[in-house]
């Protein structure tokens, strides 16, 4: 089985921080083969690509809504992907999904991703 498992979600106050983790199992997130990223979906809204990283050049990409506040990273030795979220806002409340695609390492926030995690809830409220 091929799985992506997210963790690290929870409830925080506005301005707080969370660090999401994603661990791949059943396959290796080879940095030369898999692009990885994060999507989110708030209730009643479409899924939104918020970040991805290119394995080939190490480039990182962010949606305007999170740029400057979120940072994506990966630890190849742990087969993991992370999303550091700072200065969280109520509008960041959503289910966050880890994604991966065998695209040769290139990524785009609008591209399709073959592998999805089940999501982890992030709630930002006072």
What's this, in brief?
This protein has 126 residues and is mainly β. It has strands at 3-7, 10-12, 18-25, 35-41, 48-53, 60-62, 70-75, 80-85, 94-101, 115-116, 120-124. The chain is globular, with a radius of gyration of 13 Å.
Supply the key terms:
single chain, seven-stranded mixed β-sheet, 126 residues, mainly beta
Task: Tell me about this structure.
The chain has 126 residues and is mainly β. It is 0% helix and 47% strand. It has no helices and 11 strands. It has strands at residues 3-7, 10-12, 18-25, 35-41, 48-53, 60-62, 70-75, 80-85, 94-101, 115-116, 120-124. Strands 2, 4, 5, 6, 9, 10 and 11 form a 7-stranded mixed beta sheet that branches. A 4-stranded antiparallel beta sheet has the order 1-3-8-7, with no helix packed on it. Strand 4 and strand 5 (48-53) form a beta hairpin. It is globular, with a radius of gyration of 13 Å. The model has no long low-confidence stretch (mean pLDDT 93).
